[in-house]
Amino acid sequence: MQITSKYWFGLSLHYTLVDTNNVWDTMEFSAQDAYVRSTLTSTIGLGVRFYYNPFGSENY
C-alpha cells in the first residue's frame, strides 16, 4: 500500500505446513530409540515491510 510516492508498506500473512515424516524415516541413527513426537508442524506468521524511496516524486 502506497502512503506517498516515497513511502510504501506491505503486510503479509504466511501459513506453512511442514510434513517431515518421509525424511525422518530415511535418516539413519546410531541409537535405535531415536524418535520424534510429531512430524507434522503448522505455523502462522505475519510480515510487515516498510519501503522508502528517496528518489520518489512528490507529484505522483
Describe this structure in words.
By secondary structure, the chain is mainly beta. 10% of the residues lie in helices and 43% in strands. The protein has one helix spanning 21-26, and strands spanning 7-19, 40-52. It has a two-stranded antiparallel sheet. The chain is rod-shaped and about 70 Å long. The mean pLDDT is 78.
Q: Give Rg in angstroms.
A: 22 Å
Shape: rod-shaped
Major beta sheet summary: 2 strands, antiparallel
- The helix-and-strand class reads mainly beta
User: Roughly what fraction of the amino acids lie in strands?
Assistant: 35-45%
Arithmetic mean pLDDT: 78
The count of strands amounts to 2
Major sheet strand order: 1-2
Count of helical stretches = 1
Helix coverage percent: 10-25%
Q: What is the N-to-C succession of helices and strands?
A: EHE
Uncertain spans: none
Distance between the termini: 14 Å
Keywords:
60 residues, mainly beta, two-stranded antiparallel ribbon, 1 helix, 2 strands, 10% helix
How is the secondary structure organized here?
Elements: E1 7-19, H1 21-26, E2 40-52
Antiparallel strand pairs: 1-2
